[in-house]
Amino acid sequence: MSKKTRSYVEFLYILPFLILVALMSYYPLYGWIYAFHDYMPPKPISSETFVGLKWFQFIVSNPVRRADVWRVLVNTFAMSGISLAFSWFPMVFAVFLNEIRCKPYQKFVQTVTTLPNFISWVLVYSVAFNVLSSTGAVNTVLTGLGLIDKPIAFLNSKDHIWFKMWLWLTWKNAGWAAIMYLAAISAIDDQMIEAAKVDGATRMQIIWRITFPCLLPTYFVIVMLNLANFLSNGMEQYYVFQNNFNRKTIEVLDLYVYNYATQGRGNYPLSTAISMLKSIVSVVLLFVTNTVSRLVRGEGFV
Amino acid sequence: MFKTAEKRKKHINPMDIQSPGDRVVTVITYIVYAIFAFVCAYPFYYIIINSISANNLSERGRVLFWPMEIHFKNYSRMVSIPGLLQAAKISVLRTVVGTAFTVITAAFLGYMFTRDTLWKRKLWFRFVAVTMYVNAGIIPWVLSMRNLGLANNFWGYIFPMVVQPFYIILCKTYCESVPRELQDAAEIDGAGTLRVFTSIMLPVITPILATIAIFAAVNQWNSFQDNLLLITNRHDELDTLQYKLFQYISQANSLKALVSNTTNSNAVMAGLATAATATSIRMSVTVVVVLPVMLIYPFFQRFFTKGIMIGAVKG
Fold first, then answer.
1. Are residues B91 and B228 in the same domain?
2. Cβ contact (<8 Å) for B143 and A112?
């Protein structure tokens, strides 16, 4: 078998997988054309249903729609913004966890705080529902201590929903996110710390002057990734936690698109149009943050 | 768990004399982490003890610290809930089939993308890797899957998850670290591309495949969104455990909302009351759904650093 034939034969081996990628990841991009049609399933789209930019104009021209999109954008930005503002939390969590000298205790804390990362949002919601419902542990304890007269509706309320969502996100992810920082901490040169000790540095000084500066490059990448995903905070978390009380403030872009397409009459073209705008902005954000990263660190993260 | 943490132990004696300030920091650290650990662990414990306590006690929130009047009837009763066994079957099936497909694909493509002989190797690698960053959006994706006949179809759980660039890159990097001579020697002995893969590379790269298998399995087991988006025939045989659990909770929640809002008709309430699953059964279902993850958790903890590096590896 000549080298050339072999190289084509090898291509044939991977061809089925490439086709699969084309169908699963590239073909949905072709689905963007629904945004340019009056599509009402089950009737397929054709040249007759083509409406050009009608739906894109509809987003901005219809005042109700405009207000909706604005509200959803505010929710998305608020929740992504809170995550970004507290993105240092896993780093601090890791730094002080590393300070624990009792290794079994350290390991125990790490094990327990990482577990929630591996359960689904549905299970997180189940946990939240069971612990926070009117007969759940939290309300029982608070009533028992006489701190409240009647149970607090933690989940069926719109108060502080952005912050609550951040709390659940942190409950689920902080331990896992800390692992990366722990790995980075273990890569810090011991000689630096030794030298600081010889010079009489206290532990807080070592943390402040050595550990944190050494973690900054990792933190920077996390911030950049956060920015790149600013619009895409996913919908699963918000979908499971949404109810009639909090829907107005919990709906993020992805969830809004889903709700809008599946509830009531179901407007697929408009949802597709919004999806499409979001995807384009996300790619631009990724490109920009990657460039920033390349300028600052000398290498991108993509 | 982290090598350097042990290395450092040699340098710093834990008995080092601490300044008063340091000691305060130490005490606060221990307390704060105890609270963190409690907040993460207690909800699971709470649900477990409630699922095995007397139902009338757990219903009223009386079970807080230890199980009371232990019984396991909730678990035996679960079998008779319509559709639950079927959902469990689907969840297990998708986890097994999905993981197998994902791992084999990652191994094969990871290996193929290291072969210089592959026609347009770089182009195809980029073709696959780019899909990590390009996302059409939920609705276009759903419409496309419908067009492909993957809606209301078991394979809708599998095919979209088969080719995962993250895992492929991981395998590729691992394959690159295997000495080239190993492959060359086999090829001189007459082994073809596929033979080198099955006889030489596959046995060598099993450690990384184990890591990938575990992450892929947890992903499949936890997956909820594809069920929500693709399975539109309600009362369908294809719903997963995650979906069923969510249904039980949201029914219970709407019932609760209705009770607090008495303007709603009694008929609706009665209907919901029969549909809603009792608290204790719901907790038992939660335990069953969480249990597989908890059981394999101790075994895959050692893969954590590798797993987190998946995100750090560049293509």
1. yes
2. no
